[in-house]
Amino acid sequence: MNVQKVLRYIGLTLGFLSSTFFILFLIAEGGAYLLEGKTRVIPIMLMMIMSVSGFIWAVAKPAKGSLLMIAGGVIMSVYLLLLGGFGEINMALIYGLPFIIPGVIFHYSSNKETVPDIKSIL
Asked: What predicted TM-score, i.e. pTM, was given to this entire model?
């Protein structure tokens, strides 16, 4: 098994876990806020949907979907950082990194020139 496949499986696993968690979180928390008439959760919901759709796209086409995952995670982090200030950097990282890290792994695994062969590592 080469490094490219290992990185792809790691990206699939991490992306699936974070996407599943945030979709369930989105349904539970976001749905409750929307039913109460609070619309301040809509921008975060759209950013999460963008990141999760990037993961779904990355399953089929890792190079393009990974960029959408990374963009969604970065936009979400910056939005939360601007909204809460630099004192809330933990919240920005908690929401953004679960999409940025698998996105970077997917993007790295899709580029055959940057991934070394396992024989050259060992």
From this structure: 0.84
